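A common beginner's mistake is to predict each chain separately and then try to dock the pieces by hand. The better habit, illustrated here, is to supply every component at once so that their relative placement is modeled jointly.
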Amino acid sequence: MPVQGWLQIILTLAAIFLVSIPLGRYMARVVMNQSTRLDRIFDPIDNAIYFLIGRRVASQAMTWNTYTIHMLVTNLVMAIIIYLVLSFQNYLPLNQLNFPAVDPLLAFNTTISFITNTNWQAYGGESTLSNFSQMGAITFPMFTSATTGFVVAMAWIRAFTVRNGGADLGNFYRDFIRFITRVLMPICFIVALFMIAQGAVQTFDASVIAHTVQGGDQTMVVGPVASQGTIELIGTNGGGFFNANAAHPFQNPTPLTNIVLIVLMASLPAAIIVTFGEMIGNRRQAWVLYGVLGTLMVLFLLLCVVPEQHGTPMLANAGIDMQATSDQPGGNMEGKETRFGISASGLFAAVTTAFTTGAINSAHDSYTPLAGITMLGQMMLQCVFGGKGVGFLNALIYGLIAVFVAGLMVGRTPEFLGKKIEKQEIILVSLALLIHPLVILTSTGLSMVAPSALSSLANNGIHGYEEVLYAFSSAAANNGSAFAGLNANTAWFNLGTAVVILIGRYPPIIFLMAVAGSVARKPATPATTATLRTDTFSFGVFWFATILIVGALTFFRRMSSGPSPNSLRCGTDKFSNRTANFEFFGRPPWHPNRNLPLS
Amino acid sequence: MALMLLVIIVAYLLMLGLVKFAESVIDKGQQTALREAPLPGAKASASSI
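With all components supplied together, the output reads:
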């Protein structure tokens, strides 16, 4: 890769790191109800909202189950609103292009997808949704779903700091409102203005007529793109106004906006770890976690951009120049924007799957199989920083398992942040951990034998399998990006991905909140020389190894049937015309055509 | 349309049921811990962690 490509990657990662520190400290002050310089502006806004919903509701102390129930009921009410907006968009304003009501199955899928911060899109925004739907059913839940994940994580952290027996983990509504008004809204407002200045579209109009150089007219869909595109990235949402998402020049007009979008989608999930350190009063613990996740992310990033620049023998044999020169970037440019090139596209792809955003600026389906491992692997682990709040909680799941295993190994009582980790916490943590692979593997396996699912595939064999695996991994991880090549707007995938999204989102949150409730009731144990410290370099290495080992034990078989053989297939043109898994490895003994020669 | 709306509501009700299940796991664990807790003044045995 050219030096400027590496420089771009290094500077972007440095920017994410530098932004996350002050942002995380500011968010800690917001969460802990401490004064900030912005209180004069935001206090009146917050007070007006508290007045509307009732001051008592916004001030009552909540236990873990009260907090969780209020979160679920609020999400249900918002889901109903989103579903109704989509179902009646033909009667609602700002439908200048006269789009019909969204099909019930697609509306169901879209509702579940957006209320859970997944933003899986089985539709093309510019050809399906009115501007009212884009704002009321898409942009609105982008704020609330991101906030839901964040406040749950904050309540979870409080469980380790409170001394009230778990009677007060905060107030859901207060946390919810303060995060939207004091964190998301100000950042979105400033960044949206910057995006507009760079050329992103922002209007209530639905279309403009462009006169082409050939003398014809072209109708182009426009709308409130800059505002949606901003919260899409800041909230780790990923649902684009256009089908092409951040590859569309109306949403991501310049290489500078591309870098800003990457920094945006990474900064808040990274900042949460800094917030964590501030809230527990142990910055060292936060840096250990930051180091673990940062190392994982850099390794996955290298696995993405290096093979992309290197290309594959199959591409080279097709006559494509793999060497970067002054007038072409070399490597695998298929499916990538020439404006961004390999480094900015690969970085975007690695970050969007690490932080489970789901926005794309290139076609993930066209990446080399090794880069596919990065995308799939990060979504499967779901904790390489992960989505806002939920990714952080997933990292802590691995941390609690590491504590438990390490405690047993060295003969010490497992403790995390001064609280004993016992059987009931490990049961709940294990349930939360197992749900993710269970829904991915079950749904992928069923799809591989269901004719209605197989008919959606644009590719057969290994790559077709990867497309389905990617779809359900993306849904379960609440990522929302797609591998393309898959017609997802069918009854099977609309229902299947929605169910996987729901199970991938709420049960882990509920189980982890229960863990919070359980540890909050326990008295803090003072640290002694016998305490297994979790804020040391050696524990960080153990944490890192736990993530990799548990992840590999869970998902290695899936990787070895998808990206790995696909990589071998691309390694030579010898097998380029063989698409089916069994045709590459030889047919298994039970295959009816096992004695016939391979095609 | 109404059917899918109903499915959304039922899905969230199931999640509320899951909260009750998680509560029972915690309560059971704490009852077990209380039952197995050593009496005041009891000495640690070879099986103590």
